[in-house]
């Protein structure tokens, strides 16, 4: 099963890459690429995040409904998400108090932190009998979406920087931060159970979606705010 | 004794309840958290229901602790949200944090804890109902429609993007049973169509965050749809009246034309209608009489009016038995040529026989009006044909008696002036000389020859250019009788010569240029009788003699008879005896001179290309007194 899932996932990722390259979205409006406004970009990433969150919700409820009763879980007292180290605003005022750059940075941190754990989760799921194929596909899609969403948010950040809406302090954040967070949370993520992982990711995907909406209505409040 | 027992029992039965009542004070029953809700994702309220109170006044307290923290907090506000509730204000509310909430019921005897409940505020959002729901009836070209608009609840902050609400509304007529529900997405306005005019509608709206609970329905808004003029009904009435009217008219028309309609719908079976056929005779069994009656005396028509028997062309074929010269091999391969080469039967010739069809088959050289010959290709094609003709002619020249040649004239196509070749000569009078009875020159105008005109041996061209003009196509009508009219453009004199000097003609044409007279009228000569090889023409009314000179308005074309053909592509023309017109002498002498000069060159028989010579048509024609062919539009040399 693992060997089967590997080429499939590789194909999926490759295909998506090809699709993306077929109609590249350019931030600066170069010739030969499809130009999107910042509002369009925001709408896209927000839709993307909404879909990601809905998939995670589905998986979590499936897990609680079908898998959890069969396992002997003592309790969910010490649920620990590996992204707890990332400081995220826990309320509206807190979120609005954050600067645009910081908010964007938080989003990116979250997305970066979840890429590997989700992949691992999918791999683990393939081996287990708890989930059916449908859930397995969802898990794969989920991990793939995190990756894509991160790229989308990076594009949005680039565009914002290009338009002068945010400072360029963000540019140096992606790679080193990613490395840091992954190194920090790598050990912890493996200790997470499947249920905890799903619970944590459901919440974090909701955070990402909400933060993106706040960012959008702060920057391009034309429609839908 | 017994009295005493009864009394004790009575007293006991009275006392025990009292005592028991005192003993019923127990710790409170277990409370239960019923729900926690947040209207704005910034605050939330939890409600519980009390268990049994145990007979004592019971107090309830709510305790909670956040996830991964052992610190227990008590509910900050028990009153804002009413009885048995706990309200968490903004400062105490954290989103994306799991609250573990417990309610404790306490009375004098003890307390009782409820089951803990995990709450994440994000998932318990239930907004208030939408506000300012307004309903109106608007007009459209399709009719009236309802427009409902509303606003999000005050508490939900949608402007900053903190909450995203989606809306739903429901509509029904006041007296109806079922609601009609519509999702409106994130928009704050909705149009509802297809209303019942004169009815009263009720509208309600509610909303829900993207992950949360639906709000309550807003209070119903009523709207009355005004009574509209039943346009639809009146329209239908109008249509009905109109169609009835049309139906009446159609019926009237049909009854008027009853018979013709019957004829159209049920066509009568045609019976046999043979004129003169008598069915009774046939029934009687006398077929001879029947068939005799069919014989029409008037057939074949012998009337003198040949207008209805007008046939445009008479084809006279002169077969060429001998093989063509080797150089013409490629030309012979032309389909058109071959098709005509062998047969000597002029009737029933299809494809390449009629000049028109020939044109079509031979590459689309159209037979145009006599007056419109502008295509050089055409002329070139003719030139090509001439070559072949010329060769054929040369053959004929050699052995005039033995050769079969067909002469074809193309008056329409080339609008030529038909000079009197020897053959034409005969044909002019429609009396073929006996010498030439068997001689046929086959001429064809294969179109595809034209582009390859460079291969033509040049000296052949000139000789047959005249023949281009000279060739008029004859076509027999079906009945080779006297009732045949010919197109006759040339004057032919009955002289039988097998040798004709076309070269002269050619040179003349070269000198004068080749073109086609823009306007040429056709004249018809009546054929009196067609013998085996003779066509006897009736004399034209205007002239008292035989085939007289045909005059074409200003451009008089005079033809000289061809005396004969020399052995080497030379046409010998005969002087004309009759000259109807004395006037027009063209610069004939010059032509003669030119001819004389040219003659030696042509004699060589080289394939020299003269270049465009005589490309212009000389309008005026001259009488040829000396036997030379006058100005006939010649084909440009190749």
TrEMBL record, chain A:
Its main location: secreted. InterPro entries: 4_helix_cytokine-like_core, Somatotropin/Prolactin, Somatotropin_CS. It is found in: Secreted. GO terms for biological process: positive regulation of receptor signaling pathway via JAK-STAT; response to nutrient levels. Residues 1-22 form the signal peptide. It comes from Oncorhynchus mykiss (Rainbow trout). The keyword Disulfide bond applies. The keyword Cytoplasm does not apply. This is Prolactin 2. GO terms for cellular component: extracellular space. Keywords: Disulfide bond, Hormone, Secreted, Signal. GO terms for molecular function: hormone activity. Belongs to the somatotropin/prolactin family. It comes from the Eukaryota. Pfam families: Hormone_1.
TrEMBL record, chain B:
Residues 365-403, 593-614 are annotated as: Disordered. PROSITE patterns: FN3 (PS50853), HEMATOPO_REC_L_F1 (PS01352). It is a single-pass type I membrane protein. Its main location: membrane. Residues 1-22 form the signal peptide. The keyword Acyltransferase does not apply. Keywords: Disulfide bond, Glycoprotein, Membrane, Metal-binding, Receptor, Repeat, Signal, Transmembrane, Transmembrane helix, Zinc. It is found in: Membrane. GO terms for biological process: protein complex oligomerization. The chain crosses the membrane at residues 235-256. This is Prolactin receptor. It comes from Oncorhynchus mykiss. The lineage of its organism: Eukaryota, Metazoa, Chordata, Craniata, Vertebrata.
